[in-house]
What we know:
- The chain has 319 residues and is α/β, with parallel strands linked by helices.
- The protein has two domains: 4-162, Murein tetrapeptidase LD-carboxypeptidase, N-terminal domain (Rossmann fold); 171-310, Glucose Oxidase, domain 1 (3-Layer(bba) Sandwich).
- 31% of the residues lie in helices and 20% in strands.
- It is built from ten helices and 13 strands.
- The strands form two sheets. A seven-stranded mixed β-sheet has the order 6-10-9-8-7-12-13. Strands 2-1-3-4-5-11 form a six-stranded mixed β-sheet, with helices on both faces.
- Residues 315-319 have low confidence and may be disordered.
Amino acid sequence: xxxLAEHPAACAIxxxxxxxxxxxxxxxxxxxxxxxxxxxxxxxxxxxxxxPQRYLAGDDHERLASLVDVLTRDDCDACMAVRxxxxxxxxLDNMDWERLRRNRKPIIGYSDLCGLHLAAFQHGCSGHxxxxxxxxxxxxxxxxxxxxxxxxxxxxxxxxxxxGQGELLPAWATNGVEVLxxxxxxxxxxxxxLSLLNSLLGTAHFPSRVENPILVLxxxxxxxxxxxxxxxxxxxxxxxxxxxxxxxxxxxxxxxxEYIPELLREVAAEIAGPVACGLPFGHVFPSISLPVGAExxxxxxxxxxxxxxxxxxxxxxxx
Length: 319
């Protein structure tokens, strides 16, 4: 694993604040994750203690205060979710979006945290990163060299994302990607969980303000027919017509998974821009980190090459 100080483009994130917006964190994974991040050279600020309520880390007030606490601390450079689960969407109606707009700290997480990421983008906030969480990645039991290497890849991708690296797909992340429709597109990147995106439809928090969306989708534990249902709902809402490009990540632990490739090809035929599937993105290990709302250029070649870079960054084809 690459310590922060030894990373080729070490970021300025030295002090990381943790918050619990969703499910109840596992204490063993929490302690293991804290130790690993400190081994990386990061000063980790443990989350405030909460009293679990049902399947939530705390009641709505406590969990919201957990986020506000790290956002307002002067000794914190970035904020990372402890874990996903459920709970972020319960807080959106009571969120102080003006405070979040003033915040310049990166907010890192995925899974249930996508509810916060998407709503924050809709309300004009910036700095959110679809990336790893304390328990989910850093708190894993790494019993093999391959698992340790996977965590190094996760860590490196997050640091590249925090540093504003132009290339958003490291070389290892392009292996196994299948181009369904070649082409080139410019737009705003929306990396997210499919079911969380659908849960915001019809609310004030759905990312309707995005002008040229390049969508990156993943999910876990969803049967093929439910993935079909979610995509159908996005089609009926007119959102799929607006896409400039579409990347499918991993649909992990899916029931009837043999039907998913055909389903994704059907959707690809409806998208005006480039489409690919098989990105190591989502509930997989390792998974890449991606900036929410960043202006990007997506290039997919008929030969199977893929490039995703921030707009304005120097071009370097992987085709």
